[in-house]
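ERR on first pass: missing label on line 2. Operator R.T. fixed the label and resubmitted. Corrected input:
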Amino acid sequence: MISIKFFGLIILLLVPYWLIPKQKIRNVVLGIVSLFYIYTLDANALWVVVALSSFSYLMGILIGKNPNQKIPHIAGVLGVLGALIVFKYLGFLEATLSSLSGLIGAFPRFNIKDIILPLGISYIVFKHISYLTDIKWGLVKPGRFGDFLLYSSLFTIFVAGPIERFERFKPQAEQHRIPFCWTNIDYGFMRIVFGMFKKLVIADWIGYFTAPIWQNPHQYGVWMGLIALLGYSLQIYFDFAGYSDIAIGTSRLFGFKIMENFANPYLAPSISQFWRRWHISLSDWIRDYLFFPLSGFSTKKMWVMFFVPVIAMALCGLWHGAAWHFILWGVWHGIGLSAYQIWNSIKRKNKQLAKATKANWYYYLAVLTNFSFVTLGWWWFR
Amino acid sequence: MEEKLIEFIKDEFLDDPDIVIDIDTKLISGGMIDSFSLVSLQTFIEAEFGKKIPAPRITAQSFDTVRQMVQVINQF
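pass 2 clean. output:
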């Protein structure tokens, strides 16, 4: 994303883009440039984007015509999810099944090594699932195909998100003309500079200093290991928040307001609040399309308070990568969310405890505890 | 609708009977209920008022007070 190609494209495109009088035509131009950019990064990804967008757009129309019917929605979601499973998880699935030696004979073998993970597929699939489900829920109507293709491929947010919702994107794309204003350009460049600073100065330098510890952890003691983990915790935040700033900033240069993705997550006083501030577009997605539907399966306390957060967060971990350590990272957070719910129910029953938790010292302790919990969790992730 | 929601919230989430809440009491930002409780509220609203509110409309911001809840429910 931080490349001559990326920024060169923006500089070349910016003036002609704003000279075009109609937004509809601007969207087509931005869409073509986005597809070209994706093609230069990964030719396979281009075909996946076009195929998935065509499929989801058609399914969206079907769902929109019959919002009360479940089948078009299920078929649409399974279709895009199927693509994600084939491209991203089949190898992991086979490796897992292979390790269960007794079962392997029962499952077919695939030549998994031939399947290459197309760039951005995790993001596009989640965007399309939200698109199809929001149509089913009546929150958005299918618009023009060109706008949907632009939503799927917009090069400023294609590689690392945020996972924008079509409901927010559509009204912007459907304007007769997004008015040009210098404030947007100023704001866009400011966010890009902030993002570059976070990524290239803070995150990369932390990575530079902690790399020797990660390369030879046995040479260093436990304390140095913890410092490296603390470093990683800060590095991953500044790295990803920096990317998000650049994505939001570059989108704003073209007049598009993309949702925020981070809001000082390490200052959150609870794990629940952390997830409302960390990778917000993903955590909102998990909440809306996993957490709520899963919670609807049963009203049993054990299910709602333990299994739902753990399953939802394990799947959140799996989304980050097809490996067990990502799943364990998700489970870690799921257990944290579950413990937080239990803690809240204890607090509600105990007046004295509830009063104590309103003190300033409790707040700072909670922030520190939460930060420590999240930082320890990165050990699984890394 | 407001009374039923307040009654449900008091019974389900507030263990202290002395707590008084009205339609403008900040429930989530005021720390009286947590955002996990929103799932139960969605189920209750569907059962009681026959309206299934989609999850993206049930947020800590849009469901912070009973008045806000009623506004969202009336949109469906």
